[in-house]
Amino acid sequence: MGRHGQFGHQPRVLAIVLAGGAGGRLGALTEHRAKPAMPLGGSYRLIDIALSNLQHSRISDVWIMEQYQPKTINDHLRNGRPWDLDRTRGGLLVLPPFSGNEGEGFADGNADGLLRQASFIKDFGPDLVLVLSSDHLYRLDFRDVVDTHLATDADLTMVTVDFDGDASHHGVATVGDDGRVTDFAYKPEDPPTSIVAAEIFLYTADALLDTLERLQDTEDGLGDYGHHLVPCLVEKGTVVEHRLEGYWRDLGTPVNYLRAHLDLLAGTGFDLADPHWPILTEPPQLNPGFIGDGAVVADALIAPGATVRGTVRRSVVGSGTTVEAGAVVEDSVLLNRVRVTSGAVVRHAIVDSDAVVSGACEGAGPDDPAVVDRDGRMRD
After folding, report:
1. CATH 2.160.10.10 segments of the chain
2. Of 38, 227, 235, 312, which has the fewest beta carbons less than 10 angstroms from its beta carbon?
3. In the CATH scheme, what is the code of domain 290-379?
4. Strand partners, 45
5. CATH superfamily of 5-260
6. DSSP designation for 169
């Protein structure tokens, strides 16, 4: 149907970034921060990925849907300035839970969250609504997704990946040769395919709002996107896939969080320093990282403000973190302001901000990492 599709003009795209969940799968690491505020690569936050992809895709109407520990996100967002979203018209808008109106209260799942914002979406009047999770690592030009959507006259275009892991933790799509999604199963015990939803959904606004209205009285609530919203569109509308061929990983569990950082260090699949598609963030006001005399550092990311006097191999050292002389850190991620004391050994571990680590802290391996909370205690 051409680049403008059924609208006859360049469509107006509203992006909604889902940043409300409690992040329970990350355990102790999200007890005092929202998951989108989790550090990434020593110098970034998880939410920077979605916001950077949006900025490079020239999408400037961006809403952040918050709920859990919102201050930890707001302190980082800075009114959208790092992503050029601090503008008079459009730009960044934060959507906290509210009371005293239709749709008030806390959302029970991301689809329920969209239902609670439906009247605001309608008033805004977009042609397309792009809904993104904020805990995945990938690069994608969303304009390509828009092109797929318009070319197929879809009600919903879901970004998919051919996943080489356990698909039962994701939404699983059955896709025909023409790219149309013919069936969708949410976290099935026995996945029928390896094609999973990357939790990037582009809806035609009218189709989204009409479906939310149709489902609003669902007895058990709307829940997450895979419970009722997407299956309803697959059954009654036109849903197509847009296949993401590059790197993609869900960072919502300790295993995946550590694995993603080990991927960064190994240079397999994702480059934080890609000059053509940089990750944008609020720059820290910190001194450069310091590597002391006698330190051993190999295959490591050392953030600004960090001090390393011991041994660091295949690890990420966050801002303001200190690895003392005689300490060993391997295959691990140290978040901000951690102190690893002399003689301590940290292997296959994720250490939360402000923790002090003494003695041994070792996970069983990259698929079973140790998690150390901010009080220095190892947690399940």
Report:
1. 290-379
2. 235
3. 2.160.10.10
4. 39
5. Spore Coat Polysaccharide Biosynthesis Protein SpsA; Chain A (3.90.550.10)
6. G
**Integer-rounded Cα radius of gyration of the chain:** 21
Show the DSSP H helices in the chain as ranges: 47-56, 70-77, 110-116, 118-124, 142-152, 205-215, 229-236, 254-266
Start-end of CATH 3.90.550.10 domains in the chain: 5-260
Q: Which tokens is 211 given?
A: 């479906």
Q: Which residues pair with 301 in a beta bridge?
A: 316
The answer to pTM > 0.85 is: yes
Amino acid at 50: A
pLDDT computed for residue 24 by the predictor: 64
Name which of 363, 353, 373 is nearest 331 in CA terms: 363
Q: What is the pLDDT of residue 8?
A: 64
For residue 212, which amino acid is it?
L
pLDDT at residue 351, rounded to an integer:
97
Q: Across residues 318-343, what is the average pLDDT? A: 97
Q: Which residues pair with 18 in a beta bridge?
A: 65, 133
